[in-house]
Amino acid sequence: MSRIVAVISEQIANPKRLAQKLLDKIKHHGSSKSRIYTSRGAVLGQNYFSSEKSVDFQDDKPAVVANANIFNEDSKGDSPQRIIQKLYQEKGHDVVNHLDGSFAFVVAQDKKVFAARDPIGLKPLYYIKTDDALILASEIKALVGLGEDIKTFPPGYYYSSDMGFVKYARPSHFNYSGSISEQEAAGNVRQRLINSVAMNCRNRKNPGIYLSGGIDSSVIAAAAKEVTEDISTFSVGVSKSTDLPKARVVARHLGSNHHEYVYTLDEMLKVLPQVIYHLESFDMYLVRSSIANYMLSRMAHEAGSDFVLCGEGGDELFGGYHYLKNMEPARVEAELEKLTCNGHANGFQRVDRMTSAFSIDGRMPFMNSNVTQFASRLPVKWKIYNDGSRQIEKWILRKAFERDLPEEIVWREKQKFFQGAGSAEMLSQYAEENISDEEFLRERRIREDFELGSKEELLYYRIFKDFFPQDSILDTIGRTATIG
């Protein structure tokens, strides 16, 4: 949940001042302190959130900045920076294959620099190369104005000053393997998710859960209740939201400390510029759902919560999208793998940006390796299950927790977050009323190879362009391919 920067250069006159300037651009609500680490040929910087402790390094040890959650069994109690530093000294570049968790980090020592990002890309990292420097940062906004070519540091890659970019991993390959019964699979899914929540809650009390009343967030809440008695749940939506009453059902069932907020179109429009600024995207579906996430994070922050669990990843692992239902199994597996690989610029980005906007440590237990590796090996027929009358998405996940949650929640059909929260129609109608057909036709093509899909997306793009004017940033934008 930290934010990091790195300035790798021996030509820049005052790299320390530049690093501090970059940190200031990505300092959010509740960021308590910044630290600068200097090494020959590099300056590293880190913004720490209020719940984190800053780290000092000895001159003869590698300096490390890290935005990471590390779950290595032999490293309990150590900070991510210390864990990475120790493993880097022992393993060198192979450190990336000995880390269990999500991470983006930079190491510097003796004019050598090493940077890496986790295989799924749960932790963000971007970079820009100029004539005299390589500059990295957790968010695009830190790099605006430094040059034209801002790029995404690709997930599953590391960078070293002597080898450049090297691919070391990719998300789990989706392919059925093994022989296991439905009952065993469901039990395994349940226990792995509980274990994942327990790992994420290590040394943390009273986790918050972003609760929509859908199966993914409800499962995370139920798993959290198995780990700790004291949980808080947070739900938002407009007055006609279908999520709010379902979330109340789950909250009552689990006995959580429940918080709820109802917002209006005027409130959505008021926060929209800040949502887009923090999100660093104008993708229509992503912005829609990010508004609800922003409201959730603001409410959690005001309630004093700095640590939350989210249900993101359940759709990608267990076949939650309706458009998958009529595909052949092999194609479904390929599509789920693609969705997981692209998540770093879509749903995972939303969770990261909207929680960090309020200095909240947002975790996604579905995306821990013990869950992703098992889920990727399950057959499609247990993810999208045909009961003879209909195809049920995420069936094995529902079976896994059917005794932990009310029946109306377990078998509730999936809705997009923004649909359940109730914001979609209101935003679409507002854009339709405020942008003419002529304006849309004139402005929809923003680059030869990039076209906006609707008036609503044009509304978001206009705001985005004020914050992020460089054309190269378009290449960092994830595009939601479907609405299912």
From TrEMBL:
Q: Which CDD domains match?
A: Asn_synthase_B_C
Q: Which Pfam families match?
A: Asn_synthase, GATase_7
Q: Which biological process annotations from GO are given for this protein?
A: asparagine biosynthetic process
Q: What positions does the domain Glutamine amidotransferase type-2 occupy?
A: 2-164
Question: Domain of life, per the record?
Answer: Bacteria
Q: What are the GO MF terms of this UniProt record?
A: asparagine synthase (glutamine-hydrolyzing) activity; ATP binding
Sorted alphabetically, the keyword list is: ATP-binding, Ligase, Nucleotide-binding
Q: Can you say what this protein is called?
A: Asparagine synthase
Source organism: Biomaibacter acetigenes
